[in-house]
Amino acid sequence: MTHSPNVVIVTAENFQSIVLDGSFDRPVLVDFWAEWCAPCRMLMPLLAKLADEYGGRFLLAKVNTEEEQALAAQFGIRSLPTVQLFREGRAVDQFMGALPEPQIREFLDRHIPRASDGLLAQAQRLLAASDLDGARKLIEQTRTEDPDNVRLPLAELQLMAAEGDVTTALESIDALPIELINDPEVATLRGRLRFASALTDAPPENALTDRLQTNAKDSEARYLLAAHRVLRGDHAGALDLLLELMKRDRAYGEDAGRKGMLAVFDLLGGNGDLVANYRAKMMNALY
User: Fold this and answer.
1) 3-class DSSP state for residue 94?
2) For domain 7-109, is the CATH number 3.30.70.100?
3) Among residues 40, 123, 173, 243, which one is catalytic?
4) Model pTM?
5) List 10, 19, 37, 239, catalytic entry
6) Fold designation for 205-286
7) CA 41 to CA 24: how far, in whole Å?
8) Fewer CB atoms inside 10 Å of the end CB: C or N, the chain?
9) Active site residue 37
10) What angle do CA 250, 195, 284 make, to 5 degrees?
11) Is 230 annotated in the active site?
């Protein structure tokens, strides 16, 4: 066993302090193993090597299940090796068996912060403040220092969208890494791009308001007005318009009202009082 500061032996006595409490400071990877388990002996040096290569960004905690049977039972260990990753006091993911190094790295990278994550987080704050030049510099710095950061392509698309290249961003979003498919930020970006794309060459908001006041059956004006409201953050106002469009004209844009409401729900993360309220209104209108 290596004497690395990034690898520790864990028992029932110190599991709480090292794994559960310690996982609030950094991720803790717990390797449940046994001396008789040949795959365990194969996996052990690889995990120790990675713990050192990641430079302390996670702690490797080793649990000998022959000596710590109660711990193994507590965490549902039924086969060896089993490796669980703890964050903020609980196990959030696991793998079983002696996986090859690339798969273990992929597993770790889903959960362990990279040094460049701070740069991308700052870039997002600058994008939100409309400081595109500042955001671009940080994204370019990340591209130079850590081109393998899985979140880099998302930041590049967010910058592209903020710069107005909506079409290219919308075409590129499906090419994001598979690890980001279910990321809430991707759903938010996809929703915003959908509405921004609809507004390409569209009239300004006041002109659409005038059109709708003149002709309440103007479905295009209603939808484009909803898109304007989404992009300026008036999600309730947008949902009102889309709900009304769904009630009046299901044929417009192949049910654009209902699909637009679903897109706003995704943009809002799929939960919350506003989503629950308008989801109920949508279902009542449908049935």
Assistant:
1) strand
2) no
3) 40
4) 0.63
5) 37
6) 1.25.40
7) 29
8) C
9) yes
10) 35
11) no
